[in-house]
Task: inverse folding
């Protein structure tokens, strides 16, 4: 980055100090607006993260271990000149997150053998050219029950209902409101509140926090050039989670199953660009 770009970036950060509302308290959050050059870097790293999902999908079969999926993704990411962001992030020991069945998020790959009917979220984050790209999807091992299939479908749809709220003039609370209205109110699922989407760029997790529950018309004003994730975690039962003794694995308190899907978004002048789209990922009919 040139000196001029660096200075311009600093100024943008300073001048986009905005006031978001979290609950009753006013929160002063600086949200970065990406430059054209930074947006190109975000596109590249996000494209790679999505390509990892394309690459790994055929390997998600009965008999494979989550550790094997991790190793395959790790090698693919390194081969493409990038770094698997979770590895050593705050002490996380592996290169991707593998969250099976009742695991809500941050499952650690290991010896677990996938069996027919299991569901797994693969959460891929890449660092390429200094920028992070983050996405996740649900995969079914063979076939699962109609009850679980519906959980997955509602989760992927809820992500897109959140995405549809992204654009200039919208507020961050509009996203969570759309997701919780659909998955929580209409379908009666538990919408996890303990983990949020996040701003993303030269850091993995930045301002703003993107809650998956919220009140329409409240919170941070969304502006062109912002990049953040939306990543709802939707539970068949309770929204409440426990974190296991490994310090990472979040599971549902009632051990009923959970699903999650995630994209990284760029706010454009007219709406949004999904930076982590891939050919085979779910998208609703209005988005095609
Ligand atoms: N990819 C996760 C997210 O969506 C974060 C994983 S942090 C890790 O924000 F350390 F568990 F990898
Ligand atoms: Co994320
Ligand atoms: Co992620």
Result:
């Amino acid at each position: 980055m040139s000196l001029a770009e660096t200075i311009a970036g600093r100024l943008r950060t300073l001048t986009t100090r905005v006031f978001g509302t979290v609950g009753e308290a006013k929160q002063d959050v600086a949200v970065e607006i990406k430059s054209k050059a930074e947006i190109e870097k975000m596109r590249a790293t996000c494209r790679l993260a999505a390509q990892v999902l394309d690459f790994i999908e055929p390997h998600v079969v009965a008999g494979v271990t989550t550790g094997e999926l991790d190793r395959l993704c790790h090698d693919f990411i390194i081969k493409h000149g990038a770094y698997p962001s979770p590895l050593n992030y705050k002490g996380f020991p592996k290169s991707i997150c593998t969250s099976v069945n009742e695991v809500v998020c941050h499952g650690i790959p290991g010896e677990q053998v996938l069996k027919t009917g299991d569901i797994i979220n693969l959460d891929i984050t890449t660092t390429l050219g200094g920028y992070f790209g983050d996405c996740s999807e649900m995969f079914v091992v063979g076939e699962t029950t109609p009850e679980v299939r519906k959980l997955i479908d509602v989760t992927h749809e809820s992500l897109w209902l959140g995405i549809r709220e992204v654009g200039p003039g919208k507020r961050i609370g509009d996203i969570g409101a759309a997701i919780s209205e659909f998955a929580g109110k209409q379908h009666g699922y538990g919408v996890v509140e303990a983990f949020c989407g996040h701003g993303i760029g030269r850091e993995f997790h930045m301002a703003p926090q993107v809650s998956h529950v919220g009140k329409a018309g409240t919170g941070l004003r969304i502006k062109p050039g912002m990049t953040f994730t939306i990543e709802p975690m939707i539970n068949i039962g309770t929204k409440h989670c426990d974190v296991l003794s490994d310090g990472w694995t979040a599971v549902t308190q009632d051990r009923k199953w959970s699903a999650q899907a995630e994209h990284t978004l760029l706010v454009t002048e007219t709406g949004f660009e999904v930076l982590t789209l891939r050919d085979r990922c779910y998208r609703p009919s209005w988005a095609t």
About this structure: The mean pLDDT is 93. Helices lie at 3-15, 36-56, 66-79, 146-163, 172-186.
